C-alpha cells in the first residue's frame, strides 16, 4: 500500500537507500529442483525476497468437475508465511493473496502449452518466506523455472520485475520502502524470447514519457532475469548429466 508521506528515497548522488543506481536490479539468485517431493521446484532470492515454488502435474483433476476436455487447467496458490513480513500475517488466505494468485496464474498461463494435456491439472504452490516488495514478480520468475523443471512444455519462460517512480525518477526493481513511499509502481512480466508481455499493472500516475521509460527499463531488467533463469536450469541439467555419467555431483 502507498503512503502519502514523502520521504527522501534518493541521495544527492542519485543513489537509492540501498545504494543502487536507478537502473540497477537487486541481487538475484535462482536455484532449481530444491524439493524432492514436487514434480518441479525453484527457490529465488530477489533482494530480500525469499520465495519457494513447487509444481505438480500434469495430473488428474480434483474435484473432477473442474476438468476441461481440451486443455489442462492451471491453478496457482500464492501464500505468504506468517513470518514473511514484520508483523505476523494470518496464515489464512487474504484478499491480496487471492488476487495475486490470479494475477500470477494469468501471467504464467500464456507460456504453458495447456492444450497438450487435456483433462489434467497443473498446480503451482508459491510460499513467500520473506517479503520486501515485488513478490508477485519474483514469484512469477521462480514459478516459470519450476514449471520448466517439472518438464511442462512451454513456449518460453516468463520473467518479471516491477519498475516505478521514486522522487520523480523512474527506477528499476522497487523494494518495499520504495514501493510504499514512491509515487508509482508498475509490475511487468514477459516471455522475453517471444517479446510478449503477460502482465502489466500500474499503481500511481505515469506520464506517457514516463510510462515508455519505465517499460523500457523493465524490459532491460527482464533480459537479465531471463539469463539467470536459463543459467539456473542449465546448472541443474549439467549436475544431472554429471551424476548419470558418473562425473560426481
Ligand atoms: P508485491 O509484493 O508484488 O510488490 P504489494 O505491492 O501488494 O505486492 O506488496 C508490497 C510489499 O508490501 C510486499 O512485498 C511486502 O513486503 C509488503 N506486504 C504485503 N503484505 C503485507 C502484510 N500483510 N504485512 C506487511 N507487509 C506486507
Strands across the major sheet, in which order? 1-2-3-5-4
Give the cofactors and ligands.
adenosine-5'-diphosphate
Rounded mean pLDDT score? 96
Spans of at least 5 consecutive residues with low confidence: none
**What proportion strand?**
25-35%
The tally of domains stands at 1
Number of strands: 10
Radius of gyration: 19 Å
User: What is the H/E order?
Assistant: EEEEHEHEEHEEEH
Number of H- or I-type helical stretches: 4
What CATH architecture label applies?
Answer: 2-Layer Sandwich
Straight-line N-to-C gap: 45 Å
* CATH superfamily caption: GHMP Kinase, N-terminal domain
CATH topology: Ribosomal Protein S5, domain 2
Structure overview:
This protein has 249 residues and is an alpha+beta fold. The chain has one domain (28-244): Ribosomal Protein S5, domain 2 (2-Layer Sandwich), CATH 3.30.230. Helices cover 29% and strands 28% of the residues. The protein contains four helices and ten strands. It has helices spanning 95-108, 135-149, 176-181, 208-244; strands spanning 28-32, 40-46, 49-60, 73-80, 120-130, 159-166, 169-172, 184-191, 196-200, 203-204. The strands form two sheets. A five-stranded mixed sheet has the order 1-2-3-5-4. β8 (184-191) and β9 (196-200) form a beta hairpin. α1 (95-108) packs across α2 (135-149) and α2 (135-149) runs parallel beside α4 (208-244). The longest helix has 37 residues, at 208-244. It is globular, with a radius of gyration of 19 Å. The model has no long low-confidence stretch (mean pLDDT 96). The structure holds adenosine-5'-diphosphate (ADP). Adenosine-5'-diphosphate binds at residues 85, 87, 89, 96, 131-136, 176, 179. Adenosine-5'-diphosphate binds next to α2 and α3.
Amino acid at each position: 500500500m502507498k503512503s502519502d508521506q514523502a520521504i527522501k528515497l534518493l541521495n544527492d548522488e542519485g543513489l537509492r537507500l540501498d545504494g543502487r543506481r536507478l537502473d540497477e536490479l537487486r541481487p538475484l539468485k535462482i536455484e532449481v529442483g530444491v524439493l524432492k517431493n514436487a514434480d518441479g521446484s525453484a527457490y529465488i532470492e530477489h533482494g530480500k525476497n525469499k520465495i519457494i515454488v513447487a509444481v505438480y502435474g500434469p495430473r488428474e483433476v480434483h474435484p473432477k468437475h473442474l476438468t476441461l476436455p481440451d486443455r489442462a487447467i492451471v491453478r496457482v496458490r500464492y501464500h505468504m508465511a506468517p513470518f514473511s513480513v514484520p508483523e505476523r500475517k494470518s496464515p489464512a488466505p487474504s484478499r491480496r493473496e487471492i488476487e495475486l494468485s490470479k494475477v500470477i496464474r494469468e501471467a504464467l498461463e500464456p507460456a504453458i502449452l495447456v492444450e497438450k494435456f487435456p483433462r489434467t491439472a497443473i498446480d503451482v504452490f508459491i510460499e513467500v518466506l520473506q517479503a520486501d516488495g515485488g513478490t508477485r514478480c519474483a514469484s512469477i520468475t521462480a514459478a516459470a523455472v519450476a514449471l520448466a523443471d517439472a518438464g511442462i512444455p512451454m513456449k518460453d519462460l516468463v520473467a518479471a520485475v516491477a519498475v516505478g517512480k521514486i522522487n520523480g525518477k523512474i527506477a528499476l526493481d522497487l523494494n518495499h520502502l520504495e514501493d510504499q513511499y514512491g509515487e508509482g509502481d508498475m509490475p511487468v512480466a514477459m516471455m522475453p524470447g517471444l517479446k510478449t508481455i503477460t502482465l502489466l499493472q500500474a499503481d500511481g500516475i505515469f506520464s506517457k514519457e514516463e510510462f515508455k521509460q519505465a517499460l523500457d527499463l523493465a524490459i532491460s531488467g527482464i533480459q537479465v532475469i531471463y539469463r539467470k533463469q536459463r543459467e539456473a536450469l542449465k546448472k541443474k541439467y549439467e549436475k544431472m548429466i554429471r551424476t548419470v555419467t558418473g562425473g560426481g555431483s
